[in-house]
Amino acid sequence: MMTDFPFNKEKAIASMLHICNSLGGVWDKYSLLKILYFAEQKHLARYARPITGDNIIAMEYGPVPSISYDEIKYSKVNPQYFSIEDNVVVAKSKANTDVLSDSDLECLDESIAENKHLSFGDLKKKSHDAAYNWTVQNFGENQTIPYTEIAKAAGASENMIAFIKSTSENFNFSFDE
């Protein structure tokens, strides 16, 4: 059973810009992506859907929104949005918050407030949560963490987990020809 959601690049860029802008326009890649992960986790547990639909990968230093990571790491994003030098991300424009829902912004802002002061080590420890550990134990590192496990790690109820499964199945439904 798949528990995938479609990736929305526009929301991913808006989310990363919102995080950077909220933190003064400059932030390190690792912390930026961890703040995004924790926002995704909150949103899943509360609203049964992720913000960006990114694949969350269990990497050595914890869960990483994979496509967003690649956008930043390889500077694939349009240079009108970010400049990246070493581990520093600089926002070059304001976030298009019109593409983000009120609940997206709520979870992004909570994640920013909760995680902006955490060190690399603290973020690593916090993100090596039950979802990360479950994935590494069952599939190994560098594998996709199921959204249901991410929601469970955030305390989602069994009813919410069932709803996440149902919602993602609807996104992945196709007719056989």
Spell out the key features of this protein.
177 residues, mainly alpha, three-stranded antiparallel sheet, two-stranded antiparallel ribbon, 5 strands, 54% helix, globular, disordered C terminus
In short:
It holds the Pfam family SocA_Panacea. This protein is mainly alpha-helical.
Q: Provide the domain count.
A: 1
Strand content: 5-15%
Flag low-confidence runs: 173-177
- Give the distance, in angstroms, between the N- and C-terminal Cα atoms: 20 Å
Work out the helix count: 8
Q: Would you write up a description of this structure?
A:
The C terminus is likely disordered. The longest helix has 19 residues. The two termini are 20 Å apart. A hairpin with a 2-residue loop joins strand 4 and strand 5. This protein has one domain. Strands 1-5-4 form a 3-stranded antiparallel sheet. Strands 2-3 form a two-stranded antiparallel sheet. It is mostly helical and 177 residues long. The protein is 54% helix and 11% strand. It contains 8 helices and 5 strands, in the order H-E-H-E-E-H-E-E-H-H-H-H-H.
